[in-house]
């Protein structure tokens, strides 16, 4: 095992072969590990053959969004299903989360808020470990409220902070408060930004994301069931956090950043804004507009995955998966050179 320095404060352990390390000595001693909320187990399922080829884990709040992403990425990478079959929700019998696998991509719903995404991340990180997945990359494709930016803008988080602007996830453990740094991969953030194009009919920006424990009072809304502050108080708060660099507010990035970082897994959070919070609280855009907006983070992540697979020679330029299905070696080389920034 080797040590990688992430910052002066913290080092993380890594196995040289890139497999995910668990920071829990108890798991190895257990006869079997039941991933209860995924409806999977380390003995009941052959996790290595089911998931050993995973490279990308893409998470989003709703089962519908992750199913849609699974079908979209399937089409984009030319992944074929056996005739007459459809994608299967692998975790359907957990009745908690939905999970779809398309070649090297796992698409999983995480529900709403830090507790829900946290439980899922524990089990997905263990799944990566049991399946001996190498160097997985995790993405959250979400929705958020923007501050001073138009609805439909895509925000790639450079940092996640809590409602008090602290870049840490706090969790009481055995009666003591534990703090974990919430860090996202800076290089991955830049690489994603570079994949936004001038032809996209919306902006893609990098910004600081505030992650709250609540949608209403936690995000300073005036339209919850309860509200003990004034419109002026709300606007002063939003102005203050905006000045501190916050561009958007959502409810999972802190846990996503902290737990992936603690596991030594590269991750990024990409959210589309549904409302400019300086102009209002309610999400008023029509359903069709909201649904098109939600596709925007998916498009960016899909571009990243395709670029990655093209560079590894696992995808042809016209988007067909295969072992070495490169159509024109000369053009492929060009793609490789253009996209040197992608790992
Ligand atoms: O998964 P998404 O991005 O839709 O999650 C955001 C944050 C909360 O879970 C939810 C609130 O509407 O939207
Ligand atoms: O304002 C918003 C919109 C989506 N999700 C949030 O958490 N906040």
UniProtKB/TrEMBL annotation:
Residues 55-306 form the Nucleoside phosphorylase domain. Substrate binds at residues 219, 221. CDD domains: UP_hUPP-like. GO terms for cellular component: cytosol. GO terms for biological process: nucleotide catabolic process; uridine catabolic process. One of its GO terms (molecular function) is uridine phosphorylase activity. Pfam families: PNP_UDP_1 (PF01048). It comes from the Eukaryota. Phosphate binds at residues 96, 140-143. Belongs to the PNP/UDP phosphorylase family. This is Uridine phosphorylase 1 isoform X2. It comes from Thrips palmi. The gene is LOC117649165.
């Amino acid at each position: 095992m080797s040590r990688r320095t992430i910052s002066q404060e913290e080092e993380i352990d890594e196995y040289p072969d890139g497999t995910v390390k668990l920071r829990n000595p108890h798991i190895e001693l257990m006869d079997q590990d039941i991933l209860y909320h995924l409806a999977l187990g380390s003995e009941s399922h052959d996790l290595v053959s089911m998931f050993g080829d995973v490279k990308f884990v893409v998470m989003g709040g709703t089962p519908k969004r992750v199913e849609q992403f699974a079908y979209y990425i399937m089409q984009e990478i030319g992944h074929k299903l056996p005739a007459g079959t459809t994608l299967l929700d692998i975790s359907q019998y957990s009745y908690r989360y939905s999970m779809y696998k398309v070649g090297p991509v796992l698409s999983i719903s995480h529900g709403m808020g830090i507790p829900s995404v946290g439980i899922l991340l524990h089990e997905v990180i263990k799944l990566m470990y049991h399946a001996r997945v190498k160097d997985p990359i995790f993405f959250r494709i979400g929705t958020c409220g923007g501050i001073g930016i138009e609805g439909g803008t895509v925000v790639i988080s450079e940092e996640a902070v809590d409602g008090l602007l602290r870049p840490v996830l706090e969790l009481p453990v055995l009666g003591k408060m534990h703090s974990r740094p919430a860090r996202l991969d800076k290089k991955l953030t830049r690489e994603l930004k570079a994949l936004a194009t001038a032809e996209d009919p919306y902006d893609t920006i990098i910004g600081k994301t505030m992650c709250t424990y609540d949608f209403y009072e936690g995000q300073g809304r005036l339209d919850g069931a309860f509200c003990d502050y004034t419109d002026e108080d709300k606007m002063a708060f939003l102005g203050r956090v905006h000045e501190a660099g916050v561009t958007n507010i959502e409810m999972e990035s802190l846990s996503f950043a902290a737990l992936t970082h603690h596991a030594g897994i590269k991750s990024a959070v990409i959210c589309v804004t549904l409302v400019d919070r300086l102009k209002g609280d309610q999400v008023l855009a029509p359903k069709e507009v909201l649904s098109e907006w939600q596709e925007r983070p998916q498009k960016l992540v899909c571009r990243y995955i395709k670029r990655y697979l093209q560079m590894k020679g696992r995808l042809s330029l016209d988007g067909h998966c295969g072992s070495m299905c490169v159509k024109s070696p000369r053009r492929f080389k060009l793609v490789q050179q253009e996209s040197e920034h992608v790992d």
